[in-house]
From TrEMBL:
Annotated catalytic residues: S10 (o-(5'-phospho-dna)-serine intermediate)
Annotated protein name in UniProt: Recombinase family protein
Key words of the record: DNA integration, DNA recombination, DNA-binding
Pfam families: HTH_7, Resolvase
Length: 180
């Protein structure tokens, strides 16, 4: 029976150290982490790896539910996948586990709250952008990646992985830029 930790942050400039330290302090023998949005399961290869290797009696541990996902359906699907492998899910803040029946109910409610919070954030962000546009203060987000440089390197035959490492972005961003 292993305790496996999963840490996630949404952006490249955020720090995973605090989550990883907390998971190790909680007895996780393995901690996998990634920097990718929690809005969906797409691109979350570390989480997929953990799920694929869960054995009966193992426990997937996250510091907070929103580290696992921000969509109720995704969270419930993850719980279901863990259960199919006869493994458990534990959230540290607030402490909830799927070992008991109440854990399922609490996780469902917390998942719905996380999803609602995500919608509120998007709504406030959209309203703020609209107000800024009305004042003429909004110019749009700044591009973090030199798209022309990506296209140039790609046309020179450099792999997407090498471009991503060189420019400090994800491989998927390289593919999106090249395709667009």
């Amino acid at each position: 029976m292993a305790r496996i930790g999963y840490a996630r942050v949404s952006t490249l400039d955020q720090d995973l150290d605090h989550q990883a330290e907390r998971l190790k302090a909680e007895g996780c023998s393995v901690v996998r982490s990634e920097k990718v949005s929690g809005g969906s399961r797409e691109g979350r290869t570390e989480l997929d790896t953990i799920i694929a290797f869960l054995r009966p009696g193992d426990e997937l541990v996250v510091t907070r539910l929103d580290r696992l996902g921000r969509d109720t359906r995704d969270v419930l699907n993850l719980v279901h996948e863990c259960e199919q492998r006869e493994a458990h899910l534990t959230v540290l803040d607030p402490h909830v586990s799927t070992r008991g029946e109440m854990g399922h109910v609490v996780l469902t409610v917390l998942g719905m709250v996380a999803e609602m919070e995500r919608r509120f954030i998007r709504e406030r962000q959209r309203e703020g952008i609209e107000r800024a546009k009305e004042r003429g203060a909004y110019k749009g987000g700044r591009r973090r990646i030199d798209r022309e440089k990506v296209r140039q390197l790609y046309s020179e035959g450099i792999s997407a992985i090498q471009i991503a490492e060189t420019l400090g972005c994800s491989r998927m961003q390289v593919y999106r830029i090249v395709a667009g």
